[in-house]
Amino acid sequence: MISILVVNHNGREHLHHCLSELAKQRDTFSEVIVVDNASTDDSVTMVRETLVQEAFPECRLLALEENLGFGAANNLAAAAAAGEQLLLLNSDAWLADGALPRLSAALDADPRLALVAPQLRYPDGRRQFAWAPETSVLGEAIQMQRNRFEQLAWAHHNPSPWLRPLIGAAWFSAACVLVRRTAFEAVGGFDEKIFMYFEDVDLSRRLRLAGWKLQSVDDAVAYHVKGGSRPSARGEIEYRRAQLYYYGKHRPAWEQRLLNWKLRRKFSRCQDAELRSQLLALLSTGP
Length: 287
Description:
The chain is α/β, with parallel strands linked by helices. Helices cover about 45% and strands about 20% of the residues. The protein contains eleven helices and eleven strands. Helix 1 (about 10-25) packs parallel to helix 2. The protein is globular, with a radius of gyration of 19 Å.
């Protein structure tokens, strides 16, 4: 049994497309749970109308009065779900035909697998990174260089064995991943101290540390707008807050100090005085 979990915040148009695509594939899953994080853009009304128009009883809506953040909302959806497999799907993402059965089959084939991820594509078909090197000062530097080659096939292949010590344990984007429920619950789901960003990095790491495997399934494809609901100023603040929290939780003290130094230099050059003040305050007070 597969439950699909979709978290939304002010992503009305993308969410409408996501649900419309899911309605075409309803024979591949048991239920969809949409958690709306206190949207102000009429998303809730749209969802209710869509469920009627699409005759979509497999989908239900949890409308929250407060924005709990991405991880906490997904945890809430997971608690309400009945499936043994949970598809975490961004509101600005959708599945290609046949993708979900392929992901599910891969998870069923290996009881040691906790998470499987499809190949990600932009809406126009261009390649999009579904995995990244282990998040560290070195890993983030490698990813910055890798970003230049996103449209080249080789940049998406699993790293060669001789590169793995350098790249570390990869993490997978939660834009679209199928997770084994028992594994998700065993590690406590998403860390709710992270409001948004880095929650998938953290989940991937904790699953690996608990002895689970993570894997990509290249013959399954999902499309992702990427950043479809990201607010600019707040997005930058929350990204850096989560980054600092993640380093404080998982990385050695020297890396935390190095990151702090690099970010202080970066934030000091920010042209927006108010944003600069808020970002610098994160370094002083902590995430």
